[in-house]
Design a protein that fits this description.
Structural class: alpha/beta
Number of helices: 6
Strand content: 5-15%
Radius of gyration: 17 Å
Mean pLDDT: 91
Distance between the termini: 37 Å
Low-confidence stretches: none
Length: 215
Amino acid sequence: GRNEAKLAGVAAKCAAVATVRADAADPTGSRRILEAALTRWGRLDLVVNNAGAGRPLPIGAYDGEAIAEICAVNITGPSLLLKEALPALRETKGAVVNIGTAVSQNAAPGLAHYAATKAALEHLTRAWAVELAGDGIRVNTIAPGPVKTGALTGMMGLSPEMASTIEEAEAAEIPLGRRGATTDLVPWILRLGSSANEWLTGQVITIDGGWSQRG
């Protein structure tokens, strides 16, 4: 993560957590992340590409720098982290779990580049799965629907009032009647990353309470 205070807060909750201050969009961050993991644990079993970037960006507001940042975090970052991690993953026949979005399954006016780069990550998932199958490395993606993470006021830069309005509207659209929580996603990450899962790769699993199936 980029915020030292937030990292310290997470690490304080569990002695098993090690943190590295790094930006997923910074090419030098991938090597530092890998070195920190191998120094702490001596091996690497699972890479989770969870960093994401996006913001409301209607066509009239398109900006080269903003688009490049979204691409850097959502496409370049996962690619370079996998490159750095590959030797260690080969040793353990480890796994990669990418975090996509259910938004990529429908048209997303105003969020086109966020959705498009996450759709690109889905394609990378399938391509990597085939390329790495001979090494015994499995690559899958989970595609969450609306989840309560603070992304609307953080990554998306919306006001608390606007975020609350969007959250209420999204909850009303979800067939199972509520927005998701991180506890809805973590079990799937662990399941896909487990060595007990030996025969599932190249898949995009949508976890969204039925949101993407709405008419």
